[in-house]
Amino acid sequence: MASKRLQFSKVTQLKLGNKILEDYERENWNPEMKEIHSMLKQSDFKVLDVEKINNPYLYGMYLLHKEEMIKNSKIVIEDLLYHCTSPSNGLKIASKNIDWRLTCRTRFGQGACFSKSPRYAHTHAGSDGVFVVCKVLMSVIQNLYLANYNLKIPSDGYDTTLGNNGQVYVKYDDFTFYPKYIIYYK
């Protein structure tokens, strides 16, 4: 079955309410996107299209949450991580963000799952997926050495769980991640 992917011309923009999803042409890629592309290429993925997410509401809430974490924790780690999903979910994420409450796989906790490895993220998506590259905030990380299917949220004092030998980051709060790019690949 063919992907239900939207086609964009060079300067076309799709409005999602008050949000903007814009085609991100290769000649305009910033160093961050070039690094992401390099990592995907090393993992044998071919980038077909990149859309940059410009959602002022989500980004503003992310920044407020970041300030709150800095005030409360003093130590905040911000990392770019991969979340793999279907193309239709990618568009929903651009508009409303990832809803961690809808998680159906709960090996390392019932939350939004991310990975530093595009290869690992891809193993948990269908053949017709997209990467949503997100900025993710972490402060106190609980390492899980064994799968825990009953874990709903991390132990007191932790905001993130890390499982499968550092491959899976699980987040349990709204606005502790911001979707930056949707990357169509094969």
Automatic annotation (TrEMBL):
Enzyme superclass (EC): transferase
Signal peptide: none
GO molecular function: NAD+ poly-ADP-ribosyltransferase activity; NAD+-protein mono-ADP-ribosyltransferase activity
GO cellular component: nucleus
Domain (PARP catalytic): residue spans on this chain: 1-186
Pfam families, sorted: PARP (PF00644)
Keyword line: Glycosyltransferase, NAD, Transferase
E.C. no: 2.4.2.-
Protein name from the UniProt record: Poly [ADP-ribose] polymerase
